[in-house]
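Researcher: Last one for today. Full complex below.
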Amino acid sequence: MTCDDVQHRRRKVIRMENAIDTGTTAWILISASLVLLMTPALALFYGGMTRSKSVLNMMMMSYGAMGVIGVIYVLWGWSMSYSSESVMGIFGNPFTHFGLADTITDSAGEYILSDGLPTVVDVGFQVTFAIITVALISGAIADRARFGTWLVFAGLWATFAYFPMAHMVWGGGLLSGDGPFASIAEPIDFAGGTVVHINAGVAALVLALILGVRKGFGKSPMRPHNLPLVMTGAGLLWFGWFGFNAGSAYAADGGAGLAWVNTTTATAAAMLGWLLVERLRDGHATSLGAASGIVAGLVAITPAAGDVSPLGAIPLGIIAGALSAMAVGLKYRFGYDDSLDVVGVHLVAGLWGTVALGFLATGSGLFYGGGLNQLWVQIIIALVAVVFSAVVTAVIALILKATMGWRIDSDVEVMGIDQGVHAESGYDFTGGSGRLASVGVASREALPGAEGPARSEGTTTDIDTTDTRETRS
Amino acid sequence: MTCDDVQHRRRKVIRMENAIDTGTTAWILISASLVLLMTPALALFYGGMTRSKSVLNMMMMSYGAMGVIGVIYVLWGWSMSYSSESVMGIFGNPFTHFGLADTITDSAGEYILSDGLPTVVDVGFQVTFAIITVALISGAIADRARFGTWLVFAGLWATFAYFPMAHMVWGGGLLSGDGPFASIAEPIDFAGGTVVHINAGVAALVLALILGVRKGFGKSPMRPHNLPLVMTGAGLLWFGWFGFNAGSAYAADGGAGLAWVNTTTATAAAMLGWLLVERLRDGHATSLGAASGIVAGLVAITPAAGDVSPLGAIPLGIIAGALSAMAVGLKYRFGYDDSLDVVGVHLVAGLWGTVALGFLATGSGLFYGGGLNQLWVQIIIALVAVVFSAVVTAVIALILKATMGWRIDSDVEVMGIDQGVHAESGYDFTGGSGRLASVGVASREALPGAEGPARSEGTTTDIDTTDTRETRS
Amino acid sequence: MTCDDVQHRRRKVIRMENAIDTGTTAWILISASLVLLMTPALALFYGGMTRSKSVLNMMMMSYGAMGVIGVIYVLWGWSMSYSSESVMGIFGNPFTHFGLADTITDSAGEYILSDGLPTVVDVGFQVTFAIITVALISGAIADRARFGTWLVFAGLWATFAYFPMAHMVWGGGLLSGDGPFASIAEPIDFAGGTVVHINAGVAALVLALILGVRKGFGKSPMRPHNLPLVMTGAGLLWFGWFGFNAGSAYAADGGAGLAWVNTTTATAAAMLGWLLVERLRDGHATSLGAASGIVAGLVAITPAAGDVSPLGAIPLGIIAGALSAMAVGLKYRFGYDDSLDVVGVHLVAGLWGTVALGFLATGSGLFYGGGLNQLWVQIIIALVAVVFSAVVTAVIALILKATMGWRIDSDVEVMGIDQGVHAESGYDFTGGSGRLASVGVASREALPGAEGPARSEGTTTDIDTTDTRETRS
Amino acid sequence: MKLITAVIKPHQLDEVKEALEAYGISGMTETEASGYGRQRGHSEVYRGAEYTVDFVPKVRLEVLVEDLDARSVVDVIVKAASTGRIGDGKVWVLPVEDVARVRTGEHGVAAI
Amino acid sequence: MKLITAVIKPHQLDEVKEALEAYGISGMTETEASGYGRQRGHSEVYRGAEYTVDFVPKVRLEVLVEDLDARSVVDVIVKAASTGRIGDGKVWVLPVEDVARVRTGEHGVAAI
Amino acid sequence: MKLITAVIKPHQLDEVKEALEAYGISGMTETEASGYGRQRGHSEVYRGAEYTVDFVPKVRLEVLVEDLDARSVVDVIVKAASTGRIGDGKVWVLPVEDVARVRTGEHGVAAI
Ligand SMILES: Nc1ncnc2c1ncn2[C@@H]1O[C@H](COP(=O)(O)OP(=O)(O)O)[C@@H](O)[C@H]1O
Ligand SMILES: Nc1ncnc2c1ncn2[C@@H]1O[C@H](COP(=O)(O)OP(=O)(O)O)[C@@H](O)[C@H]1O
Ligand SMILES: Nc1ncnc2c1ncn2[C@@H]1O[C@H](COP(=O)(O)OP(=O)(O)O)[C@@H](O)[C@H]1O
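Model: Here's the assembly. Have a good evening.
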């Protein structure tokens, strides 16, 4: 390969350097680790918010995304995102670097570098973004989705929505500085407002509409079962987000430092913004509000982290928190069951952060005397992202609906998806009764003393869906 | 600005360098992230220790500190701490660098560097220290403080106690190597024994005294409701503390490595010390003891991490653990309700660590043939910190008592501050009964079917404080 | 000392460099922190898997390992592992660097460097490996081991099994590139397949056999009490493992990046492998399976992280997950109570990863045209590790059995080891009844109002082991 | 006076509560319970080992009523709690000798 | 023999237990319960959606007593449990036909 | 009809359930409870402060039976629940006036 084979994020000129920058390499290695941690953190954030009967399924949707995307990214994900053989500026050729061919070392066996950073380190960094983006979507379909369908969706959506979007914005495609809109102003998406948050937020809305509401939505109480888990998740997300945003500076330098400080400032402000709305509207500042405000702030600063000042990050954050706090109620009015508010938080704050750059970008933003061009181009890339994600998600989700089916049995939904689908319970604090019936050694024998043959048909039928059949005697 | 505008931690000579050290920058970026994580970790540590009816409020005091300090630090916190325009060696001029003016880039638009580290990265590192210090205090006032008053206190205390103390010790002020006591020996506070732990520990004692005891203190059982949470918090604190201590070396070098090894060694030793006291005194080594010993060790090694040998860290740690294990009972004897033992752990271990340097500092300590000077100066800075913090905290807390009020209604205290103040419950494992009454869309409508108008007066009145008024029929 | 005094991991030529590499130093500092975090993460992973009555003891075995090993490592652990005074290639002289003598600074007071990395940073990195290895073993003896015996075992096992094994493999000993088997092919153990996982896995098997089964093993249900904790633990382990594997590259470079990517790829694949076996065999893909698959993948890639390609990591991972999923049932067939499947996960996946290198090592593996030599030498080092660990563990454990005793009273086991041994309960969600009887101030007085003298004999006798004695009246 | 105890499915609780309130009963005490009967439990699988959980979550309601109301209250509960499926539960009636209201110290029917 | 059931406020449990012990009763069984009555529940707000929780935490005590003690034990409980506020709870008395102590197999009053 | 209530040690539950099933009883309702009696609780120590927990975990079983079965069922339970140690628990029998099965609306013995 030649070094100009790869187009990458915010760098127009790709040059092969002889010297590695170990400081930057260390920073991207740890940033990648931090972003990977965000997915388990998200699993906590989401898992704590569901009812206790679905906590495991909720977490499993995030972990499942780690499994699927973790494998396909090295196969075709990297190539579709960053191959210089771009297909109409929409996606990269999946075969150029299939299986990371010609990506890790050059013909001399030396690690390929780009701006002092080994490309393989960048691969690690990028895979974590793909994983978390897919995992984010799962918040919209809590308690009711078939796990198998979700896993297949994860793979398809990453392939047809995420990798192309990453290519368009960061890989030199349509929405990048090399794309057609750059003539107005260079579009800014520092760390993923369009690629990650608008993309996932729109997909969440589409899935919520296609799957339909949960039994009892808008009537039964569906309150978070474990708020300390939610807060822990939010705290770990904040921590991991430093890799996401400050890592996206692609260097251990002042730019990374600015992104770091902006991330903290905007997030703190957004927490206060959300709490303020709650205090005024509902009379109480809640811990779920604080956790949600944190995430809204992190989302909003994502596209802007390197291009606003800390003073600009304050209003950006406050407004993000307040907007999202108001937006989470819309699902009740419009009747879509976006269970954990992916739309209200990620789509709304993602749009706000992307568009706010039109005002607040130091240099090119309206408030900094830059005129309307930046605002204009930010709106365009946001809209393109919305439309692209909506169409691709709808097509994938409808095909899956027709083929594999999305919804679990409604009785299983009532009993709880954890027991019904995963044959587990999240918690057992009493060490309650029950018997060990059989053990799955390779040959799956019944234990001595277990009654009858092992019930291989699983548990989902053991509930009150059928009538006399299920009697004991 | 000129580069000598900022005085900073342990560096006498501030010079403008042309070359960034990306390794050091990477290390301080991640150290800042680690220290930021300490506050959510503290929220777990503290939250698990309260009763389940107050876990959310306990966590919210930490998260609230992140919100408030995260915003004010970039406004005036940095300037009050590190502006070279010192006001009597006590605090920096808040206006010199208000809003990080002249802090991030120089007139040529280049990131300002100091010793190879971009100053904006240092800002990020410093804000996390301010946050955690404020959050530490909250352990003294579990279950009973108005949340609004706490948020205001957080902002005032950071402004009048923390920023000045940071200035005095690290910003070239009174207690620094440039201060008057340096003629005896250069005071040592590597990573915050005075600024963070003595400061917060004294504030905790003062607040506990001013707020008074909880209902049932010393009689009702107030045992930790979730010890795995406490242990998780302690584990994450240990992890985060590497940023705190080894990051305070301000370089990715052997000094950071020494601080890292000392941190681990002293903490391990302190855990054993605490467990030993428990085993001998109570007959049982407990998990709460292990978690507490960890924190005591981390606190004690904080001021000393760069200035003792690993062999010295062992006795320093063991004694810290043992001393704190003995000190936590004092609140029952003296009747102050320092609910989660901020005094017993942070003040006691913080004092010990600061003073122990007089004996154990390699080079200048008594045991290393350095005579009494170091000991003497360590005692002085500890005492100054105690007096300063006590006075400032008392003034702030008494003013707030007179104006906003500190205590929640005693019936709300019995019912639980989570329900009363935040209108939430920490856990709901049974998916119990309840109805969705109304939803807070922007216009806050009642749901169809919800009885009567939305109760905007909140929940706190729905408890047995009033009599016949609250009957249903 | 001279610089060639220390032999270290994968580096044949040790040279003293004048220049520190701050990027690498930053990376190893954070890697050490990440690996330290793995032990609390393991405590969550293990703690969530026990019944709620033993969660604290389970976590305490991990934390206890941190206490004991954290202290002895700086005393003699480093010296036994890496002293160049090797005793027959089996262990290093514990006195050469006792207390880190001649390890941190040279006679000129400069930090000793090796390949640009301060040796003291390496000490920090190494201590974390020793801690986690010991902690891993505890999964085999859940619910039933005396805590004191465990702590002593931890110290002895580290000294006689871990430090020697580290010396043999990484310290220039028998199993290293300087050992006798290197003439066949250079043995590969990138980050600890033999030293950590086979070593701990065999020790776990031996302990499980020596301690015997729990009351009710194979009959009573012993299901995980808190699966979200287990999943959180697995997520944090994955995060920490980046330090373990990519840190073992000993540089912030492309090699670290490759290890990072391989770690993620193999782990994702192993999760899918485990879930697939479950889906086919049991009918349900479980969250415990996902968490376990993650750990199996991390274990298997550990020895191989730097020496396979990402494409090779996929089958390596899938097979690791599938093998372990099948192996965890063996304990029921053979009747050893390896409570949390240390054997099924760490021993099986550790053996597989070590041996798989014989096929998959790029360059020397069978599938890469390298012939059988690599396979042959990998089998040899695995076998030597198995035998060495088995013998040493058996001797230590049997001596402890004869002297201190391993098992707690069987009534305490039924009541729960947390209450019986640690005098604590993991959770109290109801804020249940109870009285504060006395407080352990230094002088341990009874509270005014507490009935009778403080019961210093503890709690373990207060259960139904004795008969009429324990009546109230 | 009578004590009516009803063991019902958890998600019928709100319906039963509302039916009772509509009938004029405005006090009751609820406990979480687990039931064993014709309705089968479920099984769970942990690392390949299958556990059978025989008990099914139920809610146990206690309602003190005047003698005359007993029969109708049982009917009200049965009607509201019924889903027509196995495991809907049981209702039983016990004779009560005395009732006291703690707050006032009243006894008998007035205390209900 | 009688079975006295008391539904009281959770933080009165220790007081009631001590009063019973003082009276000479040294056995009882406690269950966690939730009560519905004149005392109102509370509401909670999650992301702006308000939930009403109607049931209030209570503790349910059961005490087996000899016939003669029944009236006085009810009084002891009412006195100890009372705070004078809405929601203090109820006490009721049921007739018991037989009691057995599991450990010894004894029946009747001796088994209490 | 009778209602048999048994307060037993938690780890005897499975044995009791199996004994009842062997006897022919195939329905019961279980609640978690805490007992206070001759069996002492335990104490716990948190940061040197010792807490005494007086109540011991128990399981509370309720079984509706026909009149004739009552005596034998009590015996079956006593036998299966007994470990011979303090704290094994109590069993008591209450008269029941009516029973209804929610699903079918049946009353009386048929509803058990
Ligand atoms: N003999 C009994 N005594 C007490 N409770 C019973 C008895 N039989 C059934 N129950 C309770 O009623 C519930 C429903 O009974 P089950 O036999 O499953 O269905 P159904 O009542 O519809 O025939 C059980 O879960 C149990 O709680
Ligand atoms: N009819 C009833 N049957 C059973 N329990 C009742 C009944 N009425 C009230 N209770 C119980 O008594 C508790 C207190 O009743 P409540 O009406 O709130 O106050 P008070 O008893 O002071 O008038 C309730 O929470 C409930 O547990
Ligand atoms: N008078 C009582 N009323 C109700 N329950 C009781 C009474 N006495 C004992 N119990 C229950 O029986 C259990 C066992 O009683 P205890 O006195 O400890 O042992 P034993 O029954 O073996 O003498 C207690 O824990 C409690 O739940």
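The pocket of adenosine-5'-diphosphate (ligand 3) is lined by residues E 27-29, 62-64, 101, 103, 112; F 7, 35-39, 56, 58, 86-90 (CB under 6 Å). The first strand of chain F starts at residue 2 and ends at 8.
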